[in-house]
Amino acid sequence: MPTLTYIIPAFNAEATLEQAVRSVLLQSVPGVEAVVVDDGSTDSTRHIAGALLGPRVRLCSHQRNSGLACARNTGWQQAEADHVCFLDADDTVSPEHAATMLEAIGTCDAVASCYEFVGPALEPLGWHAPVLAGDTAHDRLIEVNRLAIGSVVLRRDCASRLLNGSMFDESLRVHEDWEFLLRLAAVDARWAPPVEQPLFRYRLSPGSMSCDLSLMWRIGLDVIERHAHDEYELAEMARRWHVRALARAIAAEDFSHTNELRCHVKAIREEDLPTLAGTLRWALARQEAVGPRGWGARMGAWTTRALEMLDGEPMAGEIARRLAFGPHRWGSIMERAKDMLAPGEPLVIYGYGRNGRDAVRAAADLGLTIAVVDDDPRALGKVPAIRADQLLPKHLVLVTPESRDGIIQRLRERGVERIILPDAA
Q1: Would you state the pLDDT for residue 425?
Q2: 144 pLDDT above the threshold of 60
């Protein structure tokens, strides 16, 4: 009996399917299997899968294309292991994935790992996506899904125990994984602490964001409407979803959808800027399949694109300015911090979200001593930590969140004046 089944939906995946399946066969522990679900492919996907069949690879076929949710549900029904992972046919897992994830999940219902974005030929881009403990909770999931479904391992019986046998909603053409995770959050599924190694590789290809963005936006709104706890949460999350969708439309140079979303957003507010600039930077990088090391060289073209797409928007200049700040600048920020620190003095990094993780890595590259503070203790994991109420006027604090006004006010109330703001550094 296998211990982990990798469910691999495949639709016209002849170029990448073999790499996905072979990454499963290279696992460092026995007891894994791959179930390939050919979802009505019209290329040679089925023949490639057939050539890989064996004791650890099985094939299911749909006569016609039925969609990702249906293919995943088929694989779920065919899985024989106690645990499953949904691996898309263009992605791969590292050889230690099964061993590490099975150990990490313990007696919990699910566990996620950090993951790595790679290029079209699986080349490293130097771009890791951290997963925080709070990312599986409703209050974060309702805003945006920060998990890649391939980075998640689930106990197979959790659907019957927690969701009455209901898996992916086959009426959803996109965002079926996000909606599934929100249902898990609603029934208090038990998540193990995230695995910090990037064991899952998410393949990017240039133009991969140029899909039906309008469809993704509309279905995303439907998901939010289904799961919002009240009218206030619905209004707040819907607006943030409009802003994120606007950023994706700008990145894809989709003028029609950009104008449609500008009508929904109406006036861009100050509080929209962190979400808009951060999502835009991420979407542009995905659109061009380029990691953080290459962002600086592209910033001129990216800011020009943003200004052109937002022609007539009063906040366009500020959006472009915020866009230009990104992880490629953390090295120079740490050099500045190093000059300000006394020998042996720690740099306090406030916030351990996406920016905070990039800052911690840059500090490690320079050998700086650090202490991390975050308003959500779930986020901190094993990093050297300090509580906000332990901060003293002597501390040098790097504030990493893009929404930071409240943090700065609290720091100054404690007498902390040595504050570094990344986009002002």
Answers
A1: 47
A2: yes
pLDDT of residue 134: 85
Half-sphere exposure at residue 40, Cβ-oriented, CA atoms within 13 angstroms = 8
pLDDT value at position 164?
87
**64 domain-assigned:** yes
Of the chain, the percentage scoring pLDDT greater than 70 comes to 97
For residue 43, the domain's CATH number is 3.90.550.10
Element (H, E) at 338: helix 330-340
For range 20-30, the mean pLDDT:
97
Nearest to 395 by CA among 414, 409, 422: 414
Task: Give the domain extent around 354.
Answer: 328-424
Please give the model's pTM, rounded to 2 decimal places: 0.86
Cα–Cα separations (whole angstroms), residue 246 to 176, 268, 285, 300, 365: 21, 11, 15, 20, 35
Q: Does 208 reside within a domain?
A: no
CB atoms within 10 A of CB 314: 9
pLDDT band at 206, cuts 50/70/90?
confident
Tokens 């197979």 — which residue? 156
Q: Which of 25, 24, 20, 49 is nearest to 37 (CA)?
A: 49
Could you give the 3-state DSSP secondary structure of residue 7? strand
Could you please report the per-residue DSSP string of 75-108? HHHH--SSEEEE--TT-EE-TTHHHHHHHHHTTS
Both tokens of residue 230? 């009240």
Q: Cα–Cα–Cα angle for 283, 287, 289, nearest 5°? A: 110
Using alpha carbons only, what angle is made at residue 278 by residues 272 and 281, rounded to the nearest 5 degrees? 130
Residue type, position 256, single letter: S
The average pLDDT across 193-206 equals: 93
Residue 378: partners with Cβ closer than 8 Å, 6 or more residues away: 132, 133, 134
Residue 40, domain member (yes or no): yes
Q: What is the CA radius of gyration of the chain?
A: 22
Q: What total of structural domains would you count in the chain?
A: 3
